[in-house]
Known about the structure:
The chain is an alpha/beta fold.
Amino acid sequence: MDKALTLPEILTCIGNMLDKNNVISCMQVCKAWRTEFEPLLWRSFTLKQLKPGYMGLRPDFALLQKNALHIRQLVIEQMDPNLQSFFMQCKQLDEVKFHAQEVDKGDDAVQIWERFSDMIDNHGRLRKIVIDPVPWPMTNKVLETMERCPKLIVLETKKTELDVVKSQLYFRLCSKNLKRLSTWEDDYDRPEFPDDLVFQEMRYLDICHATGISMDKQLTWLSRCPNLISFRWEWVGQVDVAKLCTILSGGSCPNLTALHLIVTLADADIAQILEAASRIEKLSLPRTGFGARSMDALRRHFPTLRDINLQLCSKVTSPMVQEILRSCANLQSISAETLARSDIIRHPWACKGLQMFDIGIDVVDETGDYDPPMSHYREVYQRLGQLTELNYLSICSENQADTYNRDPIKVSLEAGLEELATLKKLTFFSCKTLLDSSDPGEGFEAVKWMVEHWKRLETFEASSLIAVMGAVGDDDNMVEPYAMDLLKDRGIRVIEFNSSERGVYDEDGDFYEGDGWTDQEDYEDDDYDLDDFVTYEHYGPIDFSSDDEYADQYEHYMQLQYMGLE
């Protein structure tokens, strides 16, 4: 056993399952472990744009050069000319994200793009490039350079200006080997598609709020992707439903099974689209007019339906949601506004493999009684407890959090929370504002129970009031620890729900919009899996040059975390 734990292949397998803090701990065991685990700290690295007072915190140039070969994901927030040789030594990159917002003194946009082009030119391993966003128009050269990356299969651009020439270069690049393209708020200049231009390899296409390209041209783009699997479309304006249906039914995209339409659609429009589609596996229609006619058209897709998002659809009723849950055996993800206890208990659910449940639950009694017995809450928790594959659970909709115009489920041990002890795979839990009406001690006990029983929990979403929920002392006052402390001590990320805006803030102040949670594309095709491109943004590793220096280095590392620089 001792010898096995010195084998590089064994240590690599172990390291791939550890977070950065655990890797640091393993590096203290012995020199052999330090040698094997240190490169894992450099798998992803962010070159941050730092304020002048923080410049000394950046790893020195020699350390960057030493570990350049270990970097797989690189985020560039500053294209520092002094680091060009470091960039050129990052030969093992799988993914690069260019997010620079400021031009270094003495540079112009052309020089910035020249350095980026030199960095990626003919890069043998590079599979994903993200331009997100850069405040200067891309040059023709950088588009031509990206086209020469032999393994590039994922491209994401945002707020990029593409004139007539750049648009042609962009489309040519996209028509080569790209399997996934996301164009977000890019500005085109009335582009034209050559008659022979086909995006043969494209599997996943996201066109979101693009400007300068007409709705008709966007649908033409869709029709030129014969092997497309997923289409995400965000558009403000009238939709040519007839043309979209012709594409879906005419054989232009025979493998298209995932539709994410964040556009203005009436109930009758959606019904036509669902009738035209040959098979639907994933469907997102938030804020649309999905109603009775759409539901009728959806039923023939029940046997294949895996993911569905009907958030903020005012015509979607609780019985509709219940019918989907009890009829779709292959369902893995569902998001909707409301589901009543009276419907939940009516029929068992067929979706035993459900992984994501994001629905506001109402427990109002059929008679209109707004003070239902605790047994009603427990019945709901018992049904949820049967979903043993869940890794994402949200039981409060934004409408409930904003208005409390119904009687949402209670989050407490008395109400039956312990029925969810079966959810061993849960990594995300959201109750939004449901704990706000709890007694602080009762709320603390609920959070304590979650921490003890959901061992894989990574993210917890609630209102800021959990910060004052603590254990109850002998004098009925709150004493330490508090619920927030329990979560953070376990390394669980706390996201504060803000009902005044559509979305949530995490503890670092970053804003997340709700729609993003529900797009669970796995992007798998042959040997291609977007999970390979998970980006762990952090400031960068530290240099453990000797055992004696470990304590100081670790303290520095923790300070960077605390300051939000790591």
